[in-house]
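Sequence in, structure out.
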Amino acid sequence: MKTETSKIEWTDYTFNPWRGCTKVSAGCANCYAETLSKRNPAVLGEWGKGKPRILASAAMWRSPLEWNRRAALEWENWETAVKASAGDSGSMPQRPRVLTASLADWLDEEVPTAWLARLLGTIHDTPNLDWLLLTKRPQNCIERIEMVLDWSAEPGNEAWREAHTEWLWDWLDAAAVPDNVWIGTSIEDQATADQRLPHLLNIPAKIRFLSCEPLLGKVDLDFNAIDIALEPDSTGSTAIAGPIHWVICGGESGTKAREMHPDWARSLRDQCAAANVPFLFKQWGEWAPGCPSQNQPAVITKPGEIIIRCGKQRAGRQLDGQIHHAFPQP
């Protein structure tokens, strides 16, 4: 299960069904995927309105099916061990997490509807994977899924329609929200939080999460103001306190990286702790407080904390001397 794993700290696999995107906010300014794409636009897509999006190869599309098969086999082997050892079989297998998409946006309105249908069909057909669907366009979700349902009614799409439309209707109606879908949105400051968070909360989902990376300003999530309407699971548990179930935080990396004030990250950490929401600090990025580096640019933040440009690897991911690596429990 650990081969082909993603280098991103909070996922096991990364799946890019297509490549290419259009920038929508300040967080996109130094997009690493755009920089990467310039090496080979024909394969990695292009950035900008009206620019080509590139569909992944057939081999790439087969990868989630293989990951799903491996996960199913691991569960089967574990269950067999449970029966053979009267319950003493070691740790329960972790469900693999799949980030979609790191080189695109799954809700990009310029992506052909048929491609999105293919992605949704793949998600439906891989129930042993948890799909982390991250977007900067949460306002598009309901409309785009409705477009897929309209597409499914067209001639030639009968097989897809028979296999998947009931699942999608149940999802939209919140009658049966997919167990293996986590919906997240990226926010970089208070303005994008205010803009995107209400749309995220309107999407039916078992797990909703925020990726605050690159964090470019202080963000008040105001958990107390969010209308909390918890539905207990089969055990009656409501352990996760609210419709935002997970927060990821990180600074920017790359040659043009902007610094992240340490207090912005601390604020998110403390808000999550107070609301009992899992918090994951992914990285400082290029800049960090007290970073051991000589002859590098430094910034004195208010109220006087020095942060130094020392590179992503040296900056690390400790926040006030501690690793924060929490995940929600579906």
